[in-house]
Structures
1.
Amino acid sequence: MNYDASFNRFSQRSALGIVFRDNEGFILAAYVYPNEYVADPMTAEAQACLQALVLEEDRSNVAALIKEIKERSRKFAEIIVRFAPRLANRMAHAMTEEGREFSVPAYWIEEVPIRVEEEVAKDQREYSVFTDGDVEGG
C-alpha cells in the first residue's frame, strides 16, 4: 500500500491518494479522497495515513489479525514507520494530483485513472528495488 497527500494552503483543501498493489506490483485498487478545512500539510499526511489503514483493514480478509497486531503493537515502546522516497511513492502522489479534480471520494478496482497509468508503468519497472515485505507510505 502506498499513500500520499497534497495540500493547498490557500483553499485549505487536501487530496489523499492511496494505491493497493499485490506482491508483484500490480494494481489491486486505487482511491482518492478530497478533504476540506485542512489546517496544514502534516494534518493532510496524517489523514492520508489513517484513511489508508482504515481502507486496508476494511478490504482485508484478515481484519481480525490486523486488529490484534495493532493491539499488540501498543505494548512496544517504539514502532518504526519507514519513509518511502518519492521515487517509490510517485504513483500515490499522482493519485493525489488526480484527486484534486474530485469533490467526492472515488475508487478504482484493478486499475487507476488514465493520467496515473504512466506512473504505474514506471513504478512497476522499479518496484523490486523498494519491496521487502514492509508496508510503506508517506
2.
Amino acid sequence: MEIRTDLSAGELRALARREKDPRAASRMYAIAHALEGKSRAEAARLSGMERQALHDAVVRTNAEGLAGLHDRPKGRRRPVLSDEEGAALKQLVLASPELARHGRTEWTLPSLAEEVAHLWGKRLHPASLSRVLRRLGLSKQKTRPRHPQADAEAQEAFKRMARPVGKWLDGRWPEQSAKTYPASGCVTLGQDGDPRALVLIKGSALEAI
C-alpha cells in the first residue's frame, strides 16, 4: 500500500518530537521509517508496534491526513438505566417495599435486581446494581433485622427511650462502614450507650451482599 507523501519523513519526525500523544508520535515515526525505505515489519518494530498497527495507521493517514494518527475519542458508555428509570429506582428504594406487594419489608440487591427486570426488562447482576445505587446517591448502611409484624407499641416505647445521634440525609450517612441501604429516618443509640442498639427506627434498609 502506498503512503501519501505530502509530508516527508523528516517533517514527520519533527512533528513526532513535538507531539504530546505518545501513540500518535509512534505512528509518525513508523511512517517516517517506511517512507525512508524500510520494510513495514522493520518500521513497525523500530517504533514499538505491530505490523498490523502500522498498516492501520497508513490506511487512516491516507484517508484523513495527520488527524488519522490520533486515537478517535471513545463514545460515552450509555448508562444501564435511563434518568427516568434511575429516579424511579431511587424512589422505590427510599419508599421501602410493601409486604403485601413485594413479599418483603427490606430490599436486598438480588430482590431489587428482580424488581428492575420486572419493571424495565433489564437484568443486572447485584454487583452492577450496587454501583448504580451508589451513583444515585445511596450509600451502604447497617441495621438490625426487624420482623414485619413487630409490635407497634414496643417500637414506639423504644423510640422514646432512644437518644438520637444523627439523621439520614438524602440516602447518605457519612463515615459508616456497613452492609445495607437504608431508606430514611433517624439513627439512634440505645439507652446507656448500648452499642448493639444502633438501628434505623424509621424506614427500611437494603441488605447488600
3.
Amino acid sequence: MRSRRRAPPERRSAEGEERGRDMEEKTILTELGVAIDTLKTLALVTLNVEETHPLALPEPPASDKVAAYERHMNAISQELATRLRPLPAASLRDYRAGFPDRAGSYLLELVNQLLREPEYVSAFSPAARKRLQGCVMDLREL
C-alpha cells in the first residue's frame, strides 16, 4: 500500500492560511448579509407607524430576534481585530433599542473599515471585496 505524499511544510502552512482566510471571509460575509436583512426588516416595521405619536419611541424587536442578531454580531466580532469589535457591539445595542438606522450606521462604519484597512483588504478575495461594497450600498439605504 502506498503512503500518501504530503506537501512540504511551507506549502501546507500556506494552504492552512488560505483556508483560514476563506473561513473568516465566509463568516463575515454571511453574518453581515443576514444582519443587514434583519435591519431592513426592522426598518420596514419601524416605518409603518402611521397611527403612532410623532415623538413615540420605536418598539424594540422581540427577544428571539435580538438573540439571533446578537449571534450574528458575536460571530462577526470573533473574526475582527480587537479595535473593531466595539462596532458590532454598538450595532447590537441600538438594534435592541429598536433603532435599525443607527444599528446599520455602525455596521456601515465596520464595512468601510474592512475595505480601508490593509490587513483586511489583503485578506479578502476580490469577490468578497465586491460583496462588501454591496453591503455598503445596502446599509446606506437604511
